[in-house]
């Protein structure tokens, strides 16, 4: 992937998380140019330093992820620093920040704030980047965290939009922008080791232009393997039909 990503420009929204930092590391060793957006300035600055150390180029763009103007500024900074945009990575799932239960939302203000952060403004980022991505045969990658232990009504909101957008792109046959949806199951993306595994698999999926990627925790994999060692294959298939093997489940 070294030659594939060398000098390519990545706009990464939500770069201030552990997963964001691991993505920075994996892309930097491949010579990527990175524009890092997020709310934690110190973490962004640390990621910029690490990117430079690993052989990439990076700038930080601290932002309020509920403000339209900050998304616009993020794209302007990317264009000013590197000229083009080849990849847009959205790590804006509800798990990346505190998000109250729906029962605790207080009127339309809460609805507007939550949806702006996790759906409306990420979609706006896609709209802002799309003209540049179309010129470069670029890619949009978005993460969602579908843990059954921490459900949230916004978890799959962006993924649902991207599925419809992908269908529209395929129907028009005039758009060469690729969309990759990464679903993280019960993995702890705030854990360095598991975030590193997710980032590594996601970067490989980008290189092969996979359409979807499903990640499961190692504990889930161990449990399924033990289950399969005691029960017939047909029964395992019936009861575990929704399970995925470790690492990646790809759908081209």
UniProtKB/TrEMBL annotation:
InterPro entries, sorted: NAD(P)-bd_dom_sf, SDR_fam
GO MF term (any one): oxidoreductase activity
Source taxon at top rank: Eukaryota
A GO CC term assigned to this protein in UniProt: cytosol
Gene3D superfamilies on file: NAD(P)-binding Rossmann-like Domain (3.40.50.720)
Keyword field: NADP, Oxidoreductase
A Pfam family recorded for this sequence: adh_short
Family statement drawn from the similarity comment of this UniProt entry: Belongs to the short-chain dehydrogenases/reductases (SDR) family.
Alphabetized PANTHER family for the sequence: DEHYDROGENASE_REDUCTASE SDR FAMILY PROTEIN 7-LIKE (PTHR43391:SF14), RETINOL DEHYDROGENASE-RELATED (PTHR43391)
Protein name in the entry: Uncharacterized protein
């Amino acid at each position: 992937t070294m030659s594939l990503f060398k000098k390519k420009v990545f706009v990464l929204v939500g770069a201030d998380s552990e997963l964001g930092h691991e993505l920075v590391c994996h892309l930097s060793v491949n010579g990527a140019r990175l524009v890092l957006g997020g709310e934690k300035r110190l973490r962004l600055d640390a990621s910029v330093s690490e990117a430079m150390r690993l052989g990439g180029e990076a700038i930080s763009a601290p932002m309020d992820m509920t403000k339209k103007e900050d998304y616009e500024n993020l794209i302007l900074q990317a264009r000013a620093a590197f000229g083009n945009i080849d990849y847009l990575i959205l790590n804006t799932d509800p798990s990346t920040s505190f998000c109250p239960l729906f029962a605790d939302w207080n009127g339309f203000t809460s609805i507007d704030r939550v949806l702006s952060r996790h759906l409306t403004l990420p979609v706006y980022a896609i709209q802002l980047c799309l003209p540049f991505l179309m010129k470069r045969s670029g890619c949009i990658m978005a993460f969602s965290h579908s843990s059954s232990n921490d459900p949230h009504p916004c978890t799959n909101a962006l993924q649902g939009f991207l599925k419809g957008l992908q269908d529209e792109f395929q129907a028009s046959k005039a758009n060469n922008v690729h969309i990759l949806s990464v679903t993280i199951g019960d993995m702890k993306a705030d854990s360095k080791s598991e975030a590193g595994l997710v980032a590594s698999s996601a970067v490989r999926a980008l290189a092969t232009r996979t359409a979807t990627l499903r990640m499961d925790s190692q504990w889930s994999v161990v449990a399924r393997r033990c289950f399969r060692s005691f029960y017939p294959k047909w029964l395992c298939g019936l009861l575990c039909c929704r399970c995925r093997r470790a690492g990646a489940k790809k759908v081209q």
